[in-house]
Amino acid sequence: MADRAGGPEGDIRVVVRCTQILGMFSREVRAVRLKDVAAELDLGRTTVYRYLTSMASAGLLERVDEGYALGPLAAQLGALALTDSDVVDIAGPYLRELSDAAGETSILAVWGDRQPVVVRTAEPFDRSLHISVRVGQTLGADAAQSAVFAAYGADGGAVADELAARDGVTAQRVRDRIRRTAQTGIAVSDTVTSGTRGIAVPVFDRDGDVAATIALLGTVHTLPGALDSAQATELRGTAARLSRALGYSGAVAAAGPSGGS
């Protein structure tokens, strides 16, 4: 059962084992347990534990109640793979125009394995101080982008429960934001501890599905939370133009009461 890795052959074995562990994840399998990995790889639990903890230290996995889930580095790599999608290729000029017009950082995010992932950003040229977000960063339950994906998804309530449970925030607060987003078509999220504010709207593809979210991120002092502010108007207009560029021909409207139930 021992899996001693030393030298080139050992290094290759380690890569193979890590790949096998990552291959156990799927849309249905969001977390793996030590005993299941040991059985799948036919290895001792002590050896598997070393693999799992090393992968968690590297960011490929993260410890959760159910065992181990995909970590931030895995999400970042997934985001880089998603850069081949149409919306990421097309969105660059739209983000640049939005950022310069609104004077805030603009963000494009797509839905990753379990949460939104940042795939492209733009920062305003004429503002020396602004908030930066790295490509590959995953967004939590309180993010405006999470509310948009949940509001326009098949089961916003289930998404709210999953996001809130994972991040340790109040599920009702997440549900309330999703409901408001479904009614208005725009999400607003304030992070009081850091003084930041995000506003986000959906981007639709030719089939009318949400391909991504586009958002503005600023401080509570520079980015208004009002849904009819100049920045919110710019954001909505940019999302509508980007949606049309993706082939969407419908009207950009609120999700309706079913989206945030």
- Our estimate of the beta-strand percent is 15-25%
Radius of gyration: 20 Å
Mean pLDDT rating: 82
Measured distance between first and last alpha carbons: 50 Å
The name of the CATH architecture of the largest domain is 2-Layer Sandwich
Q: What gross morphology would you assign?
A: elongated
The top-level CATH class of the largest domain is: Alpha Beta
Structural class, from secondary structure content? alpha+beta
Please count the beta strands (DSSP E, at least 2 residues each). 8
What's the CATH topology name of the largest domain? Beta-Lactamase
Describe this structure in words.
This protein is an alpha+beta fold and 261 residues long. It has two domains: 7-70, Orthogonal Bundle (Arc Repressor Mutant, subunit A), CATH 1.10.10; 77-260, 2-Layer Sandwich (Beta-Lactamase). It is 44% helix and 18% strand. It has helices at 7-22, 34-41, 45-58, 72-81, 86-102, 144-151, 156-167, 171-184, 230-245; strands at 31-32, 61-64, 67-70, 105-111, 116-122, 187-191, 196-204, 210-219. It has a five-stranded antiparallel beta sheet, sandwiched between helices. A hairpin with a 4-residue loop joins strand 6 and strand 7. Helix 2 (34-41) crosses helix 3, helix 6 runs antiparallel to helix 7 and helix 6 packs across helix 8 (171-184). The longest helix has 17 residues, at 86-102. It starts with 6 loop residues before the first helix and ends in a 16-residue tail after the last helix. Residues 257-261 have low confidence and may be disordered. Residues 73-248 form the IclR-ED domain. Pfam families: HTH_IclR, IclR_C. Keywords: DNA-binding, Transcription, Transcription regulation. It comes from Microbacterium elymi. Residues 12-72 form the HTH iclR-type domain.
